[in-house]
């Protein structure tokens, strides 16, 4: 039964599988404060639901996520609300990472900035040939948060992370797969491929996965 949290849609597909879709195609699924807030809530709810064994995260309209909605953010004049917005993004990443079950990003189209980070906090990333991944902070005069740089360096290695951040380019699916950002490069529908990728995980012992995920998160956090 599909359900919705503003622009965040949840569809339960049976056999413990849940699909979470960011549905803001008019902004290439860039998230405003409401979307970040609801995405956090969705992952907290699904993470606590023992019937859910596998979560796939994707975006509507042919794109994964263009990151933070900078147009909406720039319209905010209250500094306290801006601080809340920034904190909510980090809380969203934390809720996604701490969900005690496998989470797979199904990536098509743009996956940049905060969208790149969002996919990094998933356990795995499955992309189709249209995927374009990048961290364009050097074009915006910004600095990528340390925790995101750490995660990127774990995934693709320090040298590749430096290149991605310094060049501020968009990398195609083949390059993203070559350096290890994408765990699988697939033909056809990325969502269906992501569910297939996680099929054996959904059938494994959920408490074992929850424990192992918590251990790995602690190890990677030092």
Tell me what the structure shows.
It is globular, with a radius of gyration of 16 Å. The strands form two sheets. Strands 1-2-3-4-5-7-10 form a seven-stranded mixed sheet, sandwiched between helices. The chain has a three-stranded mixed sheet with strand order 6-8-9. 48% of the residues lie in helices and 20% in strands. Strand 3, helix 1 (33-48) and strand 4 form a beta-alpha-beta unit. The chain is α/β, with parallel strands linked by helices and 222 residues long. It has helices at 33-48, 70-74, 79-98, 114-120, 137-140, 146-156, 158-167, 173-178, 190-197, 199-202, 206-220; strands at residues 3-5, 8-14, 17-22, 54-59, 103-107, 110-112, 124-128, 132-134, 170-172, 184-186.
Low-confidence stretches: none
Oligomeric status: single chain
Structural class: alpha/beta
Please describe the biggest sheet, giving its number of strands, its sense, and whether it closes into a barrel: 7 strands, mixed
Beta-strand portion reads 15-25%
Note the run of SSEs as H and E: EEEHEHHEEHEEHHHEHEHHH
Termini, distance in Å? 40 Å
Question: How many β-strands, per DSSP?
Answer: 10
Mean pLDDT, to the nearest integer, reads 94
Cα shape? globular
- Strand order in the largest sheet: 1-2-3-4-5-7-10
Fraction of helical residues: 40-55%
Radius of gyration, CA atoms, in whole angstroms: 16 Å
